[in-house]
Every structure is written in structure tokens, then in C-alpha cells.
Amino acid sequence: MAVSYTAVVNVDGEGRNGGRVRSEDGLLETTLAIPKELGGAGNATNPEQLFAAGWAACFLGAVRRAAAERKVRPASIAVTAEITLTHDDEGEFGLAAILNVELGGVDQETATELGAAAHRICPYSKATRGNIPVTVHATAA
Known about the structure:
The protein has 141 residues and is an alpha+beta fold.
């Protein structure tokens, strides 16, 4: 398999509780904090937000590709990713995802088709397939 790109990011310090994130190229540099909802300070981003941002951006690109393959031109595309940190009775943590896609200028059937197609081709969707529960909601806006 040919390599297209490798992102290199370092996290040090206390990880998700006060750690520092820095990409090799210096374009991403931030601090991490535990969300207030989990008893943390909530004064910085967290891994779930970073994962949501990456997946939403990638998924939007997959929607565009699926639309182009079908010769469909949505007037607008917006993706909101909801990443939920879950835990079971034994304290084991996991993730769940909801991807909300809004497509302007298409009918509901086309929106649904594009959402499903994007979920088949998006690398984040492929990486998580069968590993976490994922729901895709595509709506015509």
C-alpha cells in the first residue's frame, strides 16, 4: 500500500489531563484538559474533540467525493461529529459516534445516499467500522 501522508503528533506531560500536543510541523499546538463533565477543569481541548474534528473534516471530503462520483452538486455540505466517551460497569472506556450531515440543494433520498456512500469511503469510518457504534444522519437542508 502506498503512503500518501503521515501525521506526526507528540503528546507529553499528563496526557489528557494537562498534557501538551504538538505536531511535528508546529501547525498544531495545544494543551489538553479533562472536560468539566468528567470532573476536570475543561479549560482546554480534549482527545474526543480532536478526534471529532478530524473525522468531521475527513467525512466532509468523503461526501464531496461521493457526490462528484454521482455527478451531484450539493449547494452546501456541513458535517457535525459527536464523539461520546462511554464506559461499562467494569470501568472499561470506549467511544460512540454520531455523524450529522446537512446537504443543501439535494433531496432527502440523495442526502441519505451520499451519507451512506461517504461512510463507506471515509478513512476514519473504515478505521472504526465494527469497533464502535456509529450512526450517520444525513438530511437535506
